[in-house]
Hints:
Layout: H1 2-20, H2 24-35, H3 37-51, H4 58-80, H5 87-110, H6 112-142, H7 148-156, H8 160-163, H9 181-201, H10 207-210, H11 214-230
Amino acid sequence: MKVLIRFIVSFFVFIVDVVYGNRSYARFYVLETIARVPYFSYLSVLHLYETLGFWRKADLLKVHFAETWNELHHLLIMESLGGNRLWGDRFIAQHIAVAYYWVVVPLYMLSPRYAYYLMELIEAHAYHTYDDHLKTHETELKTQPAPQVAINYYRDGDLYMFEETQFTSDHHFRRPSVDNLYDVFVNIRDDEGEHVKTMGALQKPEARQTFKSPHSVIELIADQAEQISEA
């Protein structure tokens, strides 16, 4: 199954790279439109299970919603840079996204582990795509201002949702710079890296029962520290 998933992702990546070539912002717009879809699929299935009384896991719902919120802001950034300017790009992205949703829903119902593996591969590709863009266009990006939507999301707005996407081992949240467009792409790249780590963690056999959101982990640590101090 993993071999098939890797083939599908590799084929999709090849098609997108060939179609969009050096049109980076249009390619990023398409990728971000599609990247939100699996998280919507996860949420749909989890809400169905909860509605039917089969299973409830609030932390998964919270984290996957935060991930959709994160990808939405990546998408808004690409739109502010003109990535959605052409009707054809919007048509391609939106129709692939609808089809992709109905691929991921049954896959997630049959095997959450494989659904998370699929997303891990896609997010890893996104990480490397943005990393390559940063290396190629560093000087140019550092001369351009950060879009206001990026400043609001990464620095000046309510950071709770941003923090919920961070798979941190030291339980400290990122507070990134947003001084120019280079910083913005660094932040987007690092977001994709956080998603990769989260998708990897969710493939563990015990994950669906033991997984905690970042804020839940910090709250648990604080409670344990308080109990120790009172003992």
